[in-house]
Amino acid sequence: MAMTETLKAIADPVRREILELLKQHSYSAGEIVDHFELSQATVSYHLKLLKQAELISERREKNFIYYDINASVFEDVLTWIYSIGGSHHE
Question: What's the CA gap between 62 and 50, in Å, rounded?
Answer without folding.
Answer: 23
